[in-house]
């Protein structure tokens, strides 16, 4: 019987594990800049609608890497957990074009036992273009079952939230 081949060195993720130590970011909201290109646009010469949530999620992934020191791929493969989205909500305010950099600010809205809610606000030349609100769940990658946000990750997220310049939302 032949041994199964793992494509491109891929392997099953380990059991869920935390980052080595809490991290700290400078005060203020995290900002991620995205260069908009002609190919990102539709025939109306503004951003193709489907790109808007993708840019918001790209900003959130950059926030994960800055806040926790790991991107989504590493969280899954090296830390054995996923953060799938359970809610996405995006509102368009003004057109996005290739004429300016898209600057996205990422805020933590709330931190649950196993959930994390973000708000993304994206601007061009100081004008609000769109906002997004998301909720993701921390899950064990091997079982896709909810897990508590690990202690060092939670501490990093809470530190960020305390310094983001906006209070966390409270449940009604």
TrEMBL record:
<keyword id="KW-0378">Hydrolase</keyword>
<dbReference type="GO" id="GO:0047617">
    <property type="term" value="F:fatty acyl-CoA hydrolase activity"/>
</dbReference>
<dbReference type="Pfam" id="PF13279">
    <property type="entry name" value="4HBT_2"/>
</dbReference>
<protein>
    <submittedName>
        <fullName>Acyl-CoA thioesterase</fullName>
    </submittedName>
</protein>
<feature type="compositionally biased region" description="Basic and acidic residues">
    <location>
        <begin position="1"/>
        <end position="21"/>
    </location>
</feature>
<dbReference type="InterPro" id="IPR050563">
    <property type="entry name" value="4-hydroxybenzoyl-CoA_TE"/>
</dbReference>
<dbReference type="InterPro" id="IPR029069">
    <property type="entry name" value="HotDog_dom_sf"/>
</dbReference>
<feature type="region of interest" description="Disordered">
    <location>
        <begin position="1"/>
        <end position="24"/>
    </location>
</feature>
